[in-house]
């Protein structure tokens, strides 16, 4: 009956992705069926940790995160956990031999969110790596399925894609991060006087990440390429919408893409894929 427990645990991670992010969950469904569950497992894990530091107000976040971290490593070592999210994650970590240093870097960034409020250039780079780039690298372990040469070739692009996603999220979440969490991720930016020049500098940085990411997407294994491309197109469209918005608007509203437009993106991506023109 242990297989039933495995299945239920995987389903918990899948539900977590579907409830928290329609964009990511729809992109995951575009991956080959062999890759979907491991990526759900990774998403469920990082989402739960992120929830601890971002939304569990009124609780001892530091203690909760420390417990979650301890239970994560214990589950990986013991190859079982009664926490279904951690159980499914350890299955994927052990199956694909995901480097534990990536997990450690992720937790370090989550710990930074417990105390850091304004990030300098060094802290910003460290945070981006641990909160986003390593998530892309965890997924790359799954996509490459043990091929170390392919992993190393695609590693820079995977990091760029994770970084781009995170920076776009920072821009679309300016209001919540600044007003509710009192965080300023972008170094040297005063959001009491956020202007077009500040915005342009950030956008140029994101554009460079997206360009580097695309160069790797077209080289991904066939099973992973289309799903990752769909996620890339979602964020590229969101980025374009952010670029067209006034700086003041980003501090007032969260920029979104309608479900209808997401469906259009998916159809267009499918057409490009069918003509091998990604």
Question: In a few lines, what is going on in this structure?
Answer:
With 278 residues, this protein is mainly α.
Q: Indicate how many domains the architecture comprises.
A: 1
User: CATH homologous superfamily - what is it?
Assistant: Farnesyl Diphosphate Synthase
Largest sheet: none
Helix content: over 70%
What is the oligomer described by this structure?
Answer: single chain
SS elements, strand count: 0
Mean pLDDT: 90
Q: Uncertain segments of ≥5 residues (pLDDT<50)?
A: none
The assigned CATH architecture is: Orthogonal Bundle
Strand proportion, as a percent range, falls in under 5%
Count of DSSP helices?
A: 13
Structural class: mainly alpha
Please tell me what the overall shape is: globular
Query: Roughly how many Å is the radius of gyration?
Result: 18 Å
CATH top level label: Mainly Alpha
Instruction: State the end-to-end CA separation.
Output: 43 Å
Helix-strand topology string: HHHHHHHHHHHHH
**Which fold name fills CATH's third level, the topology?**
Farnesyl Diphosphate Synthase
